[in-house]
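Notebook, student rotation project (T.W.).
Task set for the rotation: take a protein with a known small-molecule partner, predict the structure of the complex, and write up what can be learned from the model alone. Partner molecule chosen: flavin-adenine dinucleotide. Sequence and SMILES entered below by T.W., checked by me.
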Amino acid sequence: MIFDRAITMAPDRFHVIKLAEYTTWGIGGSAAAAAVNSEEELIDTIKFLSKSSLPWVVLGRGSNMLAPSEGWHGVVVLLKGQLAEFSFNGTLLTAGGGAHLPSIAGVACSKGLSGLVFAVGIPGTTGGAIFMNAGAYGSSISEIVEEVKVLHSNGSIEYLTAKNCHFGYRSSVFQKNDSIILSMVLGLSEAGGSSSELRREAKDILQLRRQKFPLHAPNAGSVFRRPDNGPPPGKLIEDCGLKGYKQGGAMISTIHANFIENTGGATSSDVMKLIEYVITTVKQASGITLRREIRLLEEMI
Ligand SMILES: Cc1cc2nc3c(=O)[nH]c(=O)nc-3n(C[C@H](O)[C@H](O)[C@H](O)COP(=O)(O)OP(=O)(O)OC[C@H]3O[C@@H](n4cnc5c(N)ncnc54)[C@H](O)[C@@H]3O)c2cc1C
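Predicted structure of the complex:
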C-alpha cells in the first residue's frame, strides 16, 4: 500500500485516513495521518517525520485542496485539541491553527465584534485562511492579523507580525516555506450597538452565497485565481461556453463557472483534466492564462 511506510515505521503515531473524507471535494485515496492535540505533540511529530525523511503536510478542512485518488505516500498532519481552540479577550481573538473559521466568525458576530463577518461562509480553518490569505467581499484575513505564531521545520518557534507574513492576494509567506501556523491573534472591533446587525449581515452573506455558489455539490470554492488584469475567471470560463462541461464525474458548475463540482465519483485526474482544458480554452479565446487557486496535495512537499 502507498501509505505503508509511515504506518510500518510508527503504528502508534499514525493511522490511515481516506482523504476523500478530509477534503470538501470528497476526492482522495488513503494516506497516513497524525492527529496532534497540542504544541508539544506537534513538535514531537515533526521531529519524528524529519528524522524519518517522511514527507508531510498540514491539512486544514481540505476546502482548497485536491488530493490524489490513488492515495498519498506522505503523512497528513491534522491540528486538533488545543490547536483547534479559540478564545476572546476583549476585541482580541486568539485561535489555534486548526480552529474552524466559520464557527469563530459566527461567535465574533454574536459578541458584537466586527472584522470577521466576511468569513462566515469560508469553510476552512484559521491556519488555512492565513496560509491562503482567505477573503471575500473586499476583506481578507490579513487585515485583522496582529500576530501569527509559527513552528518552523527546524523546530524553532517564531511570532510574526502581519508585515512579516508578506500577505498578498490569496498568498502569504507560508506558501513559500514549510512552516506550520500554530496560532494567531486577530484584532476585531466593537461594532457598537447590538450584535443583531452583525448577525443579520452574516445571515445575508450566507444567503447570497447559497444563491451564487453550487453548495449542493462537493466543491473546493474558486478553482482559479482572479487574473491581474481582465475579467474574473468565472466570466472568462462562462464566455467560452464551458458551464456544464464534464470530464468523468467532474463538471464546471452551471451556477458559477469558477467552481468544479464533484457530481459523483469524480477522480483527481478528472478534475486535473478539466482544469487543464479550461486553461487551454480560456487562453485560446482571451489570451489570458488562468492560474490555479486550489492546491494539490502532492505538490506540497
Ligand atoms: C464552498 C466554498 C467556498 C469558499 N469560499 C471562499 C471564499 O469566499 N474566499 C476564500 O478565500 N476562499 C474560499 N474557499 C476556499 C477555502 O475555504 C479557503 O482557501 C480556506 O482558507 C482553506 O482553509 P482549509 O483549512 O480548508 O485549508 P486546506 O484546504 O486544508 O489547505 C490549504 C493550504 O493551507 C495549508 N495549511 C492549512 N492549515 C495550515 C497550518 N495550520 N499551517 C500551515 N499550512 C496550513 C495546507 O497545507 C494547504 O497548502 C471556499 C471553499 C469552498 C469549498
